[in-house]
Amino acid sequence: MTTSQMSSATGRIRPARMGDVRAIHSLLTTFADRGLMLPRSISSLYDHLRDFVVYEEENAVFGICALHICWDNLAEIRSLAVAEERQGCGIGALLVESCLDEARSLEIDTVFVLTYQAAFFRKFGFKDCDKQDLPHKIWSDCIHCPKFPDCDEDALIRTGLGMGS
Q1: How far apart are CA 112 and CA 26, in angstroms?
Q2: Do the beta carbons of residue 137 and residue 156 sit within 8 Å?
Q3: What span, in angstroms and rounded, lies between the C-alpha atoms of 95 and 121?
Q4: Cis peptide before 135 (omega within 30 of 0)
């Protein structure tokens, strides 16, 4: 991330709160309606609220991301979204780094993503992998997806987080 991108992100990253659920839902729905990510119900957001961090400026949410623990030593970064008017300011990078830091603090060594933005995640050391290498994800979440089994997202994985990377 360049210095100019860092300086244009003037808000803060914090854990999501109950009052953020509608804003999180609205942001996710904006991109889900375009087929860029999967929709999430409000009920699901309440169920998984502790997974989310938000990027906030002046009491408004402009970015979101979640770290979902899947299994022993395995987590997924999911639901990364930044409001269109704030894209290109480094907010997405800050959100991903926040999730990676949380994974490290939880001593989770391996994090993966399913995404349409593979190049973005490669900047953080994620490597392409086969979806079949993610069996816990496939059977816990993907089987309920309307695109299953014909998923068109790219799978990427990052290992070695617990080793100071």
Answers
A1: 25
A2: no
A3: 12
A4: no
- Ramachandran area for residue 118 (φ above 0: left; ψ -120 to 50: alpha; else beta): alpha
CB burial of residue 128 (10 Å; 0-12, 13-18, 19+): exposed
pLDDT interval class at 3 (50, 70, 90): very low
Within 8 A by CB and 6+ apart from 103, the residues are 67, 75, 111, 161
Is residue 124 packed enough to be buried (19+ CB in 10 Å), middle (13-18) or exposed (0-12)? middle
Six-digit token pair at 108? 């989770």
Strand, helix or coil for residue 50: helix
pTM for this structure? 0.85
The DSSP H or E segment spanning 93 is helix 91-105
- Reading the block at residue 46, the tokens are 């309440």
